[in-house]
Amino acid sequence: MNVGATRNAIGVVVAVLVFGGLAGCGGDTSETASVSISATASVSATEEQDAVLAQEARWLTAITAGDRDTIESILSPDFKHITSEGTLLGRDEEIASIVPVTFTMNATEQSVDIVGDTAVIHGVNTLTESGNVLARERFTDVFVKQNGTWMALSAQETAI
């Protein structure tokens, strides 16, 4: 893979990931979170935050593994992704760009805000390969709860 293609793949991957708890990816599980949920909510704020972060972790793991089927199950039909290079990708473009990668992603400094059926995660994602940092990006991911499942609606990264 040439440098331009690698940089594009990194941008795509970072934008998508960007999730916490990183099962199998050495992620930092010390997230901070704030939530606004109505008093009639049947699920606690912590449970909702955990559910969003679990979906984020599942997404990040699927990205690095090149698991398009799992990514398709996570991305909302209206998903949009703005890469750190400023490229806007729709859902189909995002899925088509997914290939297995050799680097790992470590999402840290994560915070989750939930208002109704919308959740926003902010954090920092560090991409490493063989102990070398390839990129660090601050990210924002937006999820919406559809039919009881948190679905990714939007992702955006900014290079640090």
Automatic annotation (TrEMBL):
It comes from the Bacteria. Residues 52-151 form the DUF4440 domain. Pfam families: DUF4440. This is DUF4440 domain-containing protein. It comes from Rhodococcus wratislaviensis (Tsukamurella wratislaviensis).
